[in-house]
Amino acid sequence: MLDFEQEIARFKPSLEVSEVEASIVREDLTDMNDLMMEFLKEKKQ
Prior knowledge:
Layout: H1 4-10, H2 17-26, H3 32-44
């Protein structure tokens, strides 16, 4: 059986859309395109 008091104590609300967008923008994520562009730039030099 669920202990609702315990579940409520552990509850963390999800981020609002604007907070999610800000969180994603703050992350410095390197994807394959970034890696390939860097590789090509180094190769040209």
